[in-house]
Amino acid sequence: GDVYKRQVSTQSTGLPTPNTMANQEDLVIKQSFQPQDWQARVGSAAIVSGLFGCGVGAIEAFWTDVPLVKKESTLPAVRATANVVKNNGLFFAFVGATYAVGEQVAWYARGKQDVWNGVYGGLAAGAVVGVKAVDPIKGAAAGLLFGAVSAAVDMSGQQLSSSKFTDSHKTFNYGHGVQK
To answer: Buried b vs exposed e over 78-102: b needs ≥16 C-beta within 10 Å?
Structure first.
C-alpha cells in the first residue's frame, strides 16, 4: 500500500484531470499484478521457480541415460524421470521462496524498499544452494550471483515480467490507440 501512494493533481474546478485519472488507473492495474503482501510474494516466487525447476528437471531427465530405459522397462523409467523433475522443481521452488523471504525480511527489518533487499534475498537463496551442494563456496558464489542479478535488475529500473502486465493498454485492450 503506502509505497505506491501518489498525490492527485486537480484542475481549477478541484476535479482530477483525465491524464491524472489515466495514470491512477495504470497504477491500480500495475499494483494488481504486483502483490504487496509477503505471503503472495513468497508463494508466487515458489510457484514460478518450481515450474522453472520442473522444466530444468525435464531437460535433465531427457539428457540423462537412465539404465531402466536401456532395459526397456517403461514404468520404472517414467518413475525415475518424474523423480528427477520433482526434485528439481522442489529445489528451485525452495530457492525462489527463500529469495522472496530474504527480500521481505530485509524490507521489514530495514524499513526501506531498495536495491539491498534483493541482494540480501539473493544471499539467502545462495545459502540454500550451498546446503544442497554441501559446499559453502558454491553457496557463497550462488548467493553473490543471485544478489548481483537482483541488484542489476533493480538498478536498471526494469522488471523481470512481461510489459503486457505493466501497461494497462496492452493488458486490457478496449480499443485504445486503434488506428484507421
So the answer is: eebbeebbeebbbbbbbbbbbbbbb
From first to last of the 180 residues of the chain, give the pLDDT tens digit.
Answer: 444 444 444 445 556 555 555 566 665 665 555 556 788 889 989 999 999 999 999 999 888 765 655 566 778 878 888 999 999 999 999 999 999 999 999 999 999 888 999 999 999 999 999 999 999 999 999 999 999 999 998 888 776 555 555 555 555 555 555 554
Instruction: Give the span between the Cα atoms of 126 and 144, in whole angstroms.
Output: 7
Residue count (the chain): 180
Structure letter (DSSP) for residue 46:
H
Whether the predicted model's global pTM rises above the 0.85 cut: no
Cell numbers for 62: 531427457
